[in-house]
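Please, structure for the following, as tokens.
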Amino acid sequence: MKLAGFVPLSLCDYPGRLSAVIFTQGCNFRCPWCHNRHLIPLPSESSACVDEEHVMAVLAERRVRVGGVVVTGGEPTLQAALPRFLRRLKTLGLSVKLDTNGSHPEVLRQLLSEGLLDYVAMDVKAPWSKYAALTGVDACDVAAVQASVALIAASGVSHGFRTTRVDTLLAESDFSLILEQIPQGSAHTWQVFRPNDRQDATA
């Protein structure tokens, strides 16, 4: 795994649990409001990274105090080693939360079928008709994202959908359409966009 960051303790990233947070390197979207832009470039052999064995050792030491671990990014499902890595986390008795953009439903299906996920948080970034523009990817596979929404909603695993509300890019009518895309019975939260000097929310 190409790991780009590790936070040993978080009070807010896993609902109802103290958790550690692991950041993976690489994302296939280019959302203009992204607050983790340094994680967008795909990993290479020369990429600076956090040592996986160090992460595992810290988690093993703290697993009594930290009941869960969040794997986020970047986009974790881009990495072929993700299933193996999550299996290692589960051997420590930790609950695993995955943050994803939903672009790889086939990976989600594998992880869910193996029982490797205890919570899934997926971003629903825009109305389907505006997904390419809002993700910065002309060839965005909207059908794949839709498949992930349906898969997560039907999985029986705790989950939530979320949208960063960027008023300069989306209108009130768009926000209404986003809510219509959330399956009945699934939680949805609005995230507040907090710009900084590295972000561009006017694309």
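Strands lie at 3-14, 17-24, 68-72, 95-100, 119-123, 158-165, 187-192. The chain has a mean pLDDT of 92.
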